[in-house]
Amino acid sequence: MADGFETESRKLLGRLRDTMATEAAGQERLDHITHIIADSMGSEVCSIYLFRDGDTLELCATEGLNPESVHQTRMRLGEGLVGRVAKRGTTINTADAPSAPGFRYMPETGEEIYSSFLGVPIQRLGDVLGVLVVQSKTAREFSADEIYGIEVVAMVIAEMTELGKFVGEGEALSARHQQQVEFHCTTGQEGAAQGHVWLHEPRVVVTNPIADDPKRELERLKEAVDTLRVSVDEMLDVAASTGDNEHLQVLEAYRMFANSKGWMRRIEEDIDRGLSAEAAVEKEQSTARARMSKVTDPYLRDRLHDLDDLSNRLLRILTGQGQETGAEMPHDPILIARNIGPAELLDYGNRLRGIVLEEGSVGSHAAIVARALAIPLVIHAKKITTEALNGDPILVDGDQGLVHLRPDDSIVSAFRDKIAMQAQAQERYTSIRDKPATSTDGQTVSMMMNAGLLADLPSLVSSGAEGVGLFRTELQFLVQNKMPQRAELSAQYTRVLNAAGDMPVVFRTLDIGSDKVLPYMKTVEEPNPALGWRAIRVGLDKPGVLRMQLQALIRATNGGPLTVMFPFVAQMSEFTAARAEVDKAMDRERKLGHPLPSSLDVGAMLETPSLAFASKKFFKDVQFLSIGGNDLKQFFFAADRENEMVRRRYDTLNVSFLSFLESIVERCEDTDTRLSFCGEDAGRPIEALCLAAIGFRALSMRPASIGPVKSLIRRTDLSALRKVIWDERDRGEQSVRPAVMEFLRTQG
Ligand code: PEP
Ligand code: MG
């Protein structure tokens, strides 16, 4: 029986291919396809609906329904049975369509006489392009074999749509990858960029979805899978020998899939139905992607991801299309990727104008690197890797979290204005680069920059920073795939110190854990990593790395000054223990006869509310404190800084938070403890201004923010602003933001 279906299926695909080979126009081809499918299925109706825009499906061809309704009948995503198939990306099969949930009667089509309905999504790599529908008068459900056959046909139609075989008059038949598309994303790094698409992973194009000789295709598949297995085994050997655990796990998952009978069997069945080996692999990949978009379990998602990667590898082997497609990187590349690791991103270095990711998070390592390189970055650009083609013009608005792919002229010119305005502002900032951030009432705030990579160092001069207020040392650990050596670290720190010359550099010791996970370090599963084993907690429990790092820092100074601080200190004893490690390291170096730093400053980051209430002794013991506002705010409001649903919920200018910060300023004044603020808020002009108004005399921010923050401080009367803040608090307002904005407006 199954054999019969397979032969039928192959025959049908053969006819489809013949249709494609003709010189006919897109519409004619579609019409013919509906005709042959209806004929082959023995059903009265076959229709093809395609998207005319992101929300609307249009009947594009039909055999059996009223021909007048072609290009007239439309439905929204989710509307009627067809809309539901498209929305869910899953098949609907019913013997009694009019009674099925969601059924909508379309009088113009004359479809009320058809009882059974089979609708399958026309989808490619998890992207639904339309719906293929078969209907008949007799009330019967379609068999599993028939459904399978129609799904294979739908897959071929999807490939052909992608290849532009149905291009014709009207929106729904417009060629793919040509219209302008807007993506609403999340900001990872502000800034605007104009350029051309560069796909991190070039897409494999399947040009021959249908094959005559299933035997030959099965052989091709077998050969490709053998090659794949060998390469996965080789990678496993390498990973095992280097003790690269995480990689090992992923590879094990690969091997599991490569040997998975279920996965292979489905691909083989697709081939039996007439698909070429690569089309069959892509069909299964598409199914996996559709599943991936629905699962929320992170473990399962990861495994589906692995399967997706494996399919890509297999497709590359089968089509011979490697990473190298011969395409040339545009001179103004905007990188498009599903996700990217920090090391891969660093490989591109400063060549990129912008980065657009489908996944990722604001605190991911890639985002950190993008920020260090000051490249505009947006994340959560849904399905952009299937829509964008290499070389497409693209605009990235990192401020608004918007991406315009293939924008029209009006958007391009508006965007150019925006870039020009930013350039003008930049010029204004350059003119005050060497001037101090002194307010109109004579208060001066020291402008420091945050850094973490050697790539940041040129900004020291260009931004007008007075030093590095926070050097995040973990970045160098994160972008490597093995633990760096002491000598290597020491050499890097020396380069940082040399670049800074006479300016101070505050090195923060390794801050890992929570969102920052070293690929080569054993990970511990924690229910609540942000509240878990991280930063100085790891440093004190496993002091080997901390000691090595301190030694590298001392050596890097070559007898010059050294400033070190510890991240995430929550109580005094942690600081005392860490400080003791510094003293021990100094002793060791002294005994070895190495030159010691000419001066040594040791401080702590205040990132948990607890430390603000530590004893006076603690405030006297530390030489300085730096507020890690990103962490401090998340713990103050109990709102995860990584969680999109809550991270913007509480205003930094909320009076509770400002009063809390002010009390820390007062305690530091009281004990003569130097204090700075180095979270992201220090780089947001309005927030920074309020921090200065409540008494912060040092702010450390990303280099690009120094100009805007300084320019605003130089135009503001900080004492008057302080009064506004106090008045608002007295008045019982929750946030001082509206009053501050009003104050700034009246100040012009
Ligand atoms: C902070 O928490 O504000 C901070 C500066 O440290 P990080 O962002 O690296 O956690
Ligand atoms: Mg922090």
Can you put this structure into words, describing what you see?
The protein is of the alpha/beta class and 748 residues long. The model has no long low-confidence stretch (mean pLDDT 90). The longest helix is centred in the N-terminal third of the chain and has 29 residues. Helix content is 46%, strand content 16%. The strands form three sheets. Strands 15, 16, 17, 18, 19, 20, 21, 22 and 23 form a nine-stranded mixed β-sheet that branches. An eight-stranded mixed β-sheet has the order 7-14-13-9-10-11-12-8. A six-stranded antiparallel β-sheet has the order 3-2-1-6-5-4. β10, α10 and β11 form a beta-alpha-beta unit. α18 packs across α19 and α24 crosses α26. It is elongated and about 90 Å long. It folds into four domains: 160 residues, GAF domain (Beta-Lactamase, 2-Layer Sandwich), CATH 3.30.450; 119 residues, Phosphohistidine domain (Glucose Oxidase, domain 1, 3-Layer(bba) Sandwich), CATH 3.50.30.10; 106 residues, Enzyme I, Chain A, domain 2, CATH 1.10.274.10; 315 residues, Phosphoenolpyruvate-binding domains (TIM Barrel, Alpha-Beta Barrel), CATH 3.20.20.60. It binds phosphoenolpyruvate and magnesium ion. Magnesium ion (MG) binds next to α22.
